[in-house]
Design a protein that fits this description.
The complex is a heterodimer of chains A (about 525) and B (about 45). With about 525 residues, chain A is mainly alpha-helical. Chain A contains 18 helices and 1 strand. Classes of the chains: A mainly alpha (about 525), B mainly alpha (about 45).
């Protein structure tokens, strides 16, 4: 088998087992662990920048009327909060986890293309500096929402081309990261590790990487055409010139819906690693989990129209998008069932990664169910553009994607640092997050059902009470996140020594647990044999 | 070359990695221009 060559064909340059010192270690990093660390730190910084924008939004919405910021700046906050959280926080966090864990899980010495790995990371700080600098240019940042619908998005000043360039850079970075993941998994697995023996996290990332390569160019194409409409006199999306603004929505959501799965499939992989470990049982239906992820990925390409029901479309199209969207509940249900069956009669223990994984299971399901409600065409006409939609996608992305990331960090952090972290602090972080994420987002369902529109800085007095509750939840959730970097810094600096298995007594499966903690700077110079 | 870099020495593995990366890169670029070409075509019909 081709992969058997890895062991005697890869070596570490100069046979140094120590990283370079100083800034060079990071600027010229080609080691997957260093690059993974940079991605994770970057995403944490972006999480707090995007989070501070969310705090501005919730502060303004604490009571009706205009209090703190002018409406234009409020719109800039909603737009940039989304762009930063999606492209700056969630996606780079998953790429960071992939960089750290995929080579360790498949028994490879590094990612297949280490220098491209360096390049794909270092694009990001420039992209987001450019994006954030739009807040300071004349006319302010783009304020038309992260969907960049024309003609609204084109009504920005100098910020518009800067944003388009930043989106291109983010896309290039994502595509290069995806290529690296696919090429690593397909060529550098340890001897004997067939695809079906591969851990679920690596599997979820393999499928996610194909999604990225398929849809990021579509977004890039769409925003390039926005640019030509704005500066070069074309009218692709300009109704005044014979173009079709609805066409942009189709293209955007052809990217946008798979993008939603790009942000959740790796979390599915992480949860599929954690639940068996802390249930002390193998994952129930592991093969069906892989097929379920693949089915969800396939379906993500044919459901984009459900974002556009209110635009108007033929009844046959409405039915198709409604049915195909509901069909996603089948593979998702398989996953939820299998996770539950994995825990059933298991010998459960509730360490921080397990707590986050269980919260993911319950709270992501709430987001999934409200998604089913939104898929129903006549119901969608009622919910469209209301806070119900905001509640839905935040349930998917915060206790879904972000809890998945936190579960992964809490699971593998001792393997990265060699130290156990402060369990009490981690559990405090979990309980505060789990309680206040619900205080923050659950009332938004009520607001939406009562008709409160999204993306507005002011609202009718009848919505006051639940907005106050939601804002209090938001501030508490935001403050409780400060515990996370404190805990990570403590863990990096010292703590109880972690064993190779880390979670003693759980007997976790996977090659990463065969390495000592911390994982050596160069691992699997000799490939392990999988039987 | 960085001291942190792990080099792949086997030529056939190197070739597979290079071809895989190039193939996926070409696919991404083709999708980028292909979608724009599709829209240009649609805007004329």
């Amino acid at each position: 088998m081709a992969n058997a060559h890895v062991s005697d064909t890869a070596h570490h340059d100069d046979h140094h087992d120590q990283p370079a010192t100083g800034i060079k270690r990071w600027l010229f990093a080609t080691n997957h662990k260093d690059i993974g660390t940079m991605y994770l730190v970057f995403s944490l910084i972006m999480f707090f920048i995007g989070g501070s924008m969310a705090m501005v939004i919730r502060a303004e919405l604490f009571q009706p009327g205009l209090q703190l910021v002018d409406p234009g700046f409020f719109n800039e906050m909603t737009t940039n909060h989304a762009l930063i959280m999606i492209f700056g926080a969630v996606m780079p966090a998953f790429v960071g986890l992939a960089n750290w864990m995929i080579p360790l899980q498949v028994g490879a010495p590094d990612m297949a293309l280490p220098r491209m790995n360096n390049f794909s990371f270092w694009i990001l700080p420039f992209a987001f500096t450019l994006l954030l600098s739009t807040l300071f240019v004349p006319g302010g940042a783009v304020a038309g929402g992260w969907t960049l619908y024309p003609p609204l998005s084109e009504q920005s000043g100098d910020a518009f081309p800067m944003l388009i360039f930043a989106v291109h850079m983010m896309g290039a970075s994502s595509i290069m990261g995806a290529i690296n993941v696919i090429v690593t998994i397909m060529n550098m697995r340890a001897p004997g590790m067939t695809l079906l023996k591969m851990p679920l996290f690596a599997w979820s990332w393999l499928i996610t990487a194909y999604l990225l390569i398929a849809v990021m160019p579509v977004l890039a194409g769409a925003v390039t055409m926005l640019l030509t409409d704005h500066f070069f006199g074309t009218s692709f999306f300009n109704a005044g010139g014979g173009g079709d603004p609805i066409m942009f929505e189709h293209i955007f959501w052809f990217f946008g819906h798979p993008e939603v799965y790009i942000m959740i499939l790796p979390a599915f992989g992480i949860i599929s690693e954690i639940l068996p470990t802390f249930s002390r049982k193998p994952l129930f239906g592991a093969t069906s989990m892989i097929y379920a992820i693949a089915s969800i990925a396939f379906l993500s390409f044919i459901v984009w129209g459900h974002h556009m029901f209110a635009d108007g479309m033929p009844e046959a199209a409405q039915l198709f998008y409604m049915m195909s969207t509901m069909l996603i509940a089948v593979p998702t249900g398989v996953k939820v069932f299998n996770w539950t069956a994995t825990m059933w009669r298991g010998s459960l223990s509730f360490e921080p990664p397990m707590l986050f994984a269980i919260a993911f299971l319950f709270l992501f399901s709430i987001g999934g169910f409200s998604g089913l409600m939104l898929a129903i065409v006549p119901a969608d006409f009622q919910y469209n553009q209301t806070y119900f939609v905001v509640a839905h996608f935040h349930y998917v992305l915060v206790p879904g994607a972000i809890f998945g990331i936190m579960a992964g960090v809490y699971y593998w952090l001792p393997k990265w640092t060699g130290h156990m972290y402060n369990m009490t602090l981690a559990k405090t972080h979990f309980w505060l997050s789990a309680i206040f994420v619900n205080v923050l987002f659950f009332p938004q369902h009520f607001l939406g059902l009562a008709g409160m529109p999204r993306r507005i800085p002011d609202y009718a007095v009848q919505f006051t009470d639940w907005n106050m509750v939601s804002s209090i939840g938001g501030f508490a959730f935001g403050l409780s996140q400060i515990l996370f970097p404190i805990l990570i810094i403590q863990c990096v600096r010292g703590g109880k020594k972690a064993s190779a298995e880390v979670w003693d007594g759980t007997h976790p499966t996977g090659l990463e647990w065969t390495l000592p903690s911390p994982a050596p700077y160069h691992s699997f110079g000799t490939a392990p044999e999988i039987r | 070359m960085s001291t942190s870099e792990t080099r792949v020495l086997d030529t056939s593995l190197k070739r597979r990695i290079r071809n895989g990366a190039l193939g996926l890169g070409v696919l991404a670029v083709a999708l980028y221009f292909g979608f724009m070409a599709l829209l240009v075509y649609r805007s004329h019909h």
